[in-house]
Amino acid sequence: MNTNLAYNTYTQNNIGVESPEKLVQMMYEGILRFNMQAKRSIQDNDIERRTYWINRSNAVVSELINILDYNQGDISLYLSGLYSYQLRLLAEANLYNDSTKIDQINQVFKGLLEAWKESTDVAYQA
Fold first, then answer.
1. Measured on CA atoms in the order 62, 52, 20, 114, is the torsion positive or negative?
2. What is the pLDDT of residues 35-91, one digit of tens each?
3. Domain of 75: which CATH number?
C-alpha cells in the first residue's frame, strides 16, 4: 500500500512539471500501453484484468475530451467526436471481449501520437 502511495505521489509531482504538450503525448502513450495490456487480457480470457485496463484507457480518453479547448476551432469538435467514438469502441471491446476493437483504437491513437509529436516539434522549433 505504501509503495502505491509513493508511486502516486511521484506521478503527480512528475506530471506537475510537464508541459501541456508533453502531457497530451503521455496520455496518448498511456492509452496505447493500457490497450496492449487489455488486448493481452482478452487473449488470456482474464475478464477482471481486461476490464481494469479498458477502464484505465477509458479514463484517459475521457480526460482528453474534458481538456479540449473549443476556442481553437473545428479541430476541437473533430477530436471530441473522434474521442467519443473511441470510448464507444472501448465499451464494445469490453462487452464483447473483442481485441479487434482494441486494434482499431490503437491505430487511431498511434496516428494521433505521431501527428502530435510532429506538430509540437515544429512548434518548439519555430
1. negative
2. 999 999 999 999 999 999 999 999 999 999 999 999 999 999 999 999 999 999 999
3. 1.20.120.340
113 occurs within a structural domain: yes
Range of the domain at 84: 23-125
Look at residue 14 and tell me if it is in a domain: no
Kindly report the pTM of this predicted structure. 0.84
